[in-house]
């Protein structure tokens, strides 16, 4: 597995990426956007619903920092998460979810939030 696509350790692989996305959103989404983040997600379909809901909430919320960039990143992340959830032939779900994770991180940075660097 490519080092840049999926982490090793307790959250490895597809489920790990889903859990990483959920965990990252859990840190700032409830307080800033009022969206409930579940304690766990079972796969790309639930992540797609969550990221889609977050992106929709960002559209109707006044955001600090560079809100336009954050909205664009969240919309792109939502689109990628739905692509990963669809599981069509020729789609690499891990790569799509890694891009979703990166987009959610970029959105948080655009809002002026601190995002930990994970190696």
Write structural notes for this entry.
With 119 residues, the protein is an all-alpha fold. The protein has 5 helices and no strands. The protein has helices at residues 13-26, 29-33, 44-59, 67-86, 93-110. The chain is globular. The two termini are 15 Å apart. Mean pLDDT is 88; it is low at 1-10.
Task: Briefly summarize what is shown.
The chain is an all-alpha fold.
Q: Oligomeric state of the chains?
A: single chain
pLDDT under 50 segments (min length 5)?
A: 1-10
**Gyration radius, rounded:** 13 Å
Basic shape:
globular
State the total count of DSSP E strands.
0
What share of the residues lie within helices?
A: 55-70%
- Roughly what is the average pLDDT, rounded to an integer? 88
Head-to-tail CA distance between termini:
15 Å
Secondary-structure-derived class = mainly alpha
- Strand percentage: under 5%
How would you characterize the largest beta sheet? none
The number of helical runs is 5
Order of helices and strands: HHHHH
Features:
119 residues, globular, mainly alpha, 0% strand, 5 helices, disordered N terminus
Sequence-ordered SSE layout with sheet pairings:
Layout: H1 13-26, H2 29-33, H3 44-59, H4 67-86, H5 93-110
